[in-house]
Every structure is written in structure tokens, then in C-alpha cells.
């Protein structure tokens, strides 16, 4: 009987599943864009907005078997949900045959499988309203509105989904706070990528501490980011200027405070989300990759998100970190499933319970160095570190302590440790903390070590004699090799010193304390001589402004590009150290990777990943090789360079201004993907600063922005100017400085501007591209290039705007450029003059260093 019962149960279960899948497969029924008393949404039906932009119905997220009612983009290949009704009350798979989303008693309600209301709009009605006429309509902007069926769709609504967002802030909606009703829009993250239920992070307008500014909170309590006050154009805490693709509005009056954004080009698809990782992100849909592109994020680093790795979790966003989040020693992820989905806020739990106050071995403390101290430390009085430890050990609620007599004295933590971050060894803000663990966490490891030691002692005596003989043999061999290596090194150094003295050069070494700050390996000069065959001409890849580049073959057959800085390059020890320490901390697919360095006497050498196709200029300025780069590849290269710049200007931990962006500094890998290189002139600027000045102007003539060349002012906008030149050179296949037209213009900018004003943009395109060229994309790129080289830096777009414009399909909506800088115009009498032409012979008091433009 029991076997029969089990068999019947299994058959019943599978019959339910088969019916469910049948119902799910029939979800092709669209019942229009409106729900009324006679139409409702079920597992087999949806509603779609009038122009087909958005769809609403039941959905599941990832491998989650629960069902939710939501709104998503209809036309996109990747399902993107923008609103969820029943985030806290999902419907199980077994109830879906009977679930309904319908109008009931004037309200929009969600009924589960037993026909119970689990979600409702909860509208309060005027006495004269006929509830039987209430309908719900999905609009083409993604807004679900409940209204009187007799009124116009655009008239006053009884309820709007835009007023009750889930995790997405849509264009055209308000994000703010109603001062009279107390209603506010709060974006709440999903729990993880497969679970729409509310997560721990919220984005909202704060009226108490920050007076109408946007803030991000953890657990509705801890504010870890704020937008800063509104300046009239943007928020001070948001590090980008108003975008030419958007129209931004901020209102703060007696009735309400809100922020909204709209598109100048309505065909663009974008949204703003509170992501599962605690960052707010602005997304733009890219048809070219059929996916979302992130062009704005705050906070910039996930380790700045409060509680990102949860209780007893450590955050590590250093380049060499194997994972962003990890657990402290003695802890493990609380929910492994969440961690596999990159949702770490659930944190870590102890492997072994503490033994405070019980009989047995007392708890101990595990030391963690170079840590950012956890949040909510409690200061207690302790004469020394021993007393601090004792105070924590005697308190069963205490889970850890830190002691620094010069900074904070004794700090203890109770309950949970949150916001831990593992810092680099050279970070002066790092502290040592001691985390409480059960004694067994120590004894397990220590006992193992002691057992290994005990076993080793049993065989140590007979092995010792053999080991001693081997040691003596090895010592003799090492001594011989070291003597030989020393002679080779001494000979090489002597030769270098003789050459240096003959040329009057200064001999410099990086000090040991500098080497400690460099996160890439040091290579010996002898190993580089061997790898490059003594810098032979056969291994020479090219000659850059700062010296020759060679191909090196290192042990294991690994190919590396070896950049040997010339004594005549103008790049001294400071520039060299700058490039090594700076690029070692950068990691992006469109930035070249530094593999190592060497400095000995006057030799300064950088080792990069080998780029088989050398630099971009060797293609676009060579008629024979230029045909390899068709229009599609050139457009991808432009996009790749823009993404690399976006990382430098906004997304990297350090805000970096390159100052020498040009086609010869764009390297191409085996698949012709672009990588920005040569960071010797790059400058790091603090925090949200986007501009600085210098007394020494360095860079390449023809690529420098006028405010930099003349006044020494460099900024992210001076990099944008250089990028504009690069775009025009990629399109035309001509050098800006090498271009000369006897009758009209003396540079490429002037020529491009004239063709633009004469509506002859396609005449600028390289002849080799005419067959493969997409005309609209080419005109768009010329438009963007001219926007980048406008004379006033304020008029130039920032890199996030450039990314959006490159992804836009509607070129009509792009801003019209003003006259570019560095444009030579024809004047009366056949002479030429320039409103902002820079020469290298004393236009300003700045020292203009012009690097030589040559192929690699």
C-alpha cells in the first residue's frame, strides 16, 4: 500500500508540473494594454503597452521557482525587469494555475492560488467615484497607472507605479519626497540576481540630515553615500557634469523635493538602478553588444559600500585580490548560494562557537594586519594592549579589539563586525585588529604543526647528515654562480657608467622604500639583456618618444615588450616611478598591462604585455596595413579607447589624467583590441577634482588642448580633446600635424571643420573605408570628434557622455559642435592666422616639451 501511495503521489506531482508547464508555454496571449473588471493577467496572459515598449505579467528570476508580477522591457533581447509588485509575497510554482492580477473593488490586486489578496494598490476613493469603471493601463514609458475608465489616459491618476518604484528609477518619473503627504520614492535593491525580494540597500531623498539630497543607506539606517547639494547643473557629490543626452531637473519647494531626468533623444533606452551590490548605476542599452552598458556608478568602489561583505566578511578590491569578499579566519559564508551569485551582504558565520564563561579552554584572538577598522567600535579605557585584550576577553559580547595608543587607544566590538576591508601593505590607514575565536581554531592548526614537527624529529638525525652534505654542495655552486653573475653585472654597469659619464648623464637608482610601493616584479638588467639579445636591432619593435621598444623572450617562451627609456626622452626618475607605480594599480581590458620594471644606474626599463600588432598609428597611417582595419573594427577601437578613458577618469580608484593620449600610445592586441599605454606623463588628482595645473607642459604637439599648452591647465577635458584628435585621425587616416592643404587649412582639424560646415562629412572618411563604412556611424563619430575638440573645455563632453553618444542610433539628437581649437583659418591676403594656435617657441611661460611622434 505504501508503494502504491508513493506512486500515486509522484504521478499527481508530475501531472501538476506538466499542467503548469503547459500553461507557461501558452503565455503568448496578450490582452491589450489595459486591465479592467473583465480582463486580468494570469500565467497564460500579459498586457503590453500600446507601442510595444513594455510588457507586464508573471515572471521568475533566474533559477528561483517563485513567481512575481512585474514589468519588463518588451523589445530587448535580455529580459530586464523594472518594477515588481509582490517583492515580499511571492507565489509558489504550485499556485500559479489560479493566480490572478486583476481589478477588484476599484483596486488593482494580486490573488494567490487560494484567491487571497497578497498585494493591493490600497487606493482611498472619493465617495462619488464609480469603482466599477476603474482600469489599469501600462503606458509606453513603463508606468502602470490606475485611473477612472472615463478619464483620459494622461489625466490625473488614482495610483501610479512610478510613485512606488522597486529598484529602478525610470526616465520621466520623479524620485523624491512629498513634504505635504510624506510620500517618498525609495529604490530598494534586490536580495540577489535571482531574488527580487528587498535587499539591504536603499536609495532615497533624505530630509533630516542632508536637506533634500540623495543618500544610499544600509538596512534603512546607515548612510554611506550622499549626492551633495544641487549646484543648478548637478550634484557636487556626483563626479560628472550634466550629460548632453539627458535633461536633468531638480525641484525643491514648499510642497515637494524631487529629481528627474528625461532624454533629448527618446529612442535611447536607459534606466537607473539600486544594484544588489549596494551601488547605484546608470545603464544604457547598447544594440551593438545586445546588453546594458554601465556608464555611471556610485560609490565608485564596492568596498565603500557599507556592509558589502556582511558580518565578519572582508572586502578587498586590490588588483591582485582573488575575490572581492572573503571571510575572516575561523568563519565561512553564511549562505553559500548567495555568495555564488555575488551577493555577499549575508556575511559570514563562525565555524566553531565561542566558549565564553564555560569550562574548558578559553577563547583566543586571531591577528589581522592592514585592515580598515570595522564600524561602530566602542572606546574603552585601557592602560596598554594587554589590558585591552583582557577587557574584551572578559566580556562575552566582545568579538574583537584593536589597540593603538597614538590614534584611538583601545577599541572593542560587540555583536558583529561590519565594513572590514583588507588594505595594501603601504596604506597608512591600515590597522591591526584581533578577532575572537574558539581555542580549537588555533589548536587544530597548531597541533597539526606540532605533530608534523614531532614526526620530522624522528627522522631528522639520519637525514641531517645527508642534508649537510647537500647544503655544502649547493653553497659552493651558488657561490660560483654569484661570483660569475657579479662579474657580468659589474662589466655591464661599468660600460653603462662610462657611456653615461661621456654624455654627462646622471646615474639614479630607485630607493628600497620606493620598491616597496611597487606592485609588479623587479627584473634584473642581466635577464633583460639575455631576453632581448643585448637589445639587438632584430628584436626592436619601434621607436617611441621616450625611447625604443624591444621584443623580449623570457624563460618559458613568454613574449614581453621591453621599453628602454632614452636619456634624451625627457622622462626622468620621477616620470619613471610615476608610470611604474601608477599603471601597476590599474586593471582594465583597454589599458596595457605592466608586467615588471628594471632600473640600474642610468637604465630605466618597463616591461609590458606584448602587443603583436604594435600601435594604432602603424595601421591607420599606412595605406597597405590600413585596409586591415575596416570601418567596423575602427568603430570598435574608438569605443574601446573611450571605455579605457572612462575607467581612468571615473571608475578607477584613482582619478587619472593621461596627458599624452595619441594614436602611437594606443596598442593593439592579437585581435586588434585597443589598449591605452604610456602613463609616464599621467597625473593622479584627488577625490572629485577634475582639473589641475602645472608649470611644465609636457605632451605631444597636435594632441594637446589649448588651455593645457598655453596656461598649463590639464583636466579630464584635456584628455577628451586628445581623444577627439584620435577619433578624427582614425576616421580620416591622416595625422593632425602631418596634414597640409596648401590653399586652405594647415591641419586636420581645420579641414574637418570646413567639411562639417559644408555638410560634406563623408569626404573626410579614409578612401579605404568607403565600401565597409556605415555612413551614419561615420557622421556620428565626426560629430563626437568635433565636440571633443571644442575650444572651451566646458563645451566638451565627458567620457560617460561620449560612451552614450557612441551607443546612440539617432545622430540627429547629438549636440552641434562649436568651432574647434587649434584651427588655422584663411585670412585676407593669403596669410593664415589662428585664434588659438600653439607654437613651441614661447607662447607662454610654461615649458613645452614635445615628444617625437614615431611608430613603435
TrEMBL record:
Domain Apple residue range list: 356-438
Keywords per UniProt: ATP-binding, Cell membrane, Disulfide bond, Glycoprotein, Kinase, Lectin, Membrane, Nucleotide-binding, Receptor, Serine/threonine-protein kinase, Signal, Transferase, Transmembrane, Transmembrane helix
Origin superkingdom: Eukaryota
One Gene Ontology term of the molecular function aspect: protein serine kinase activity
InterPro entries xref list: Bulb-type_lectin_dom, Bulb-type_lectin_dom_sf, Kinase-like_dom_sf, Pan_app, Prot_kinase_dom, S_locus_glycoprot_dom, Ser-Thr/Tyr_kinase_cat_dom, Ser/Thr_kinase_AS
GO biological process: immune response; recognition of pollen; signal transduction
SUPFAM superfamilies recorded: alpha-D-mannose-specific plant lectins, Protein kinase-like (PK-like)
Signal peptide positions (record): 1-25
Residue ranges of domain Bulb-type lectin in the record: 32-159
Catalytic activity, EC: 2.7.11.1
Coiled coil: none
Protein kinase domain residues: 535-822
Bilayer topology annotation: Single-pass type I membrane protein
Subcellular location per the Swiss-Prot or TrEMBL entry: Cell membrane
Reactions accelerated catalytically: L-seryl-[protein] + ATP = O-phospho-L-seryl-[protein] + ADP + H(+); L-threonyl-[protein] + ATP = O-phospho-L-threonyl-[protein] + ADP + H(+)
Membrane-spanning ranges: 459-480
Keyword Ligase: no
This protein's GO CC annotations: plasma membrane
Family: Belongs to the protein kinase superfamily. Ser/Thr protein kinase family.
Protein name: Receptor-like serine/threonine-protein kinase
Biological source species: Capsicum annuum
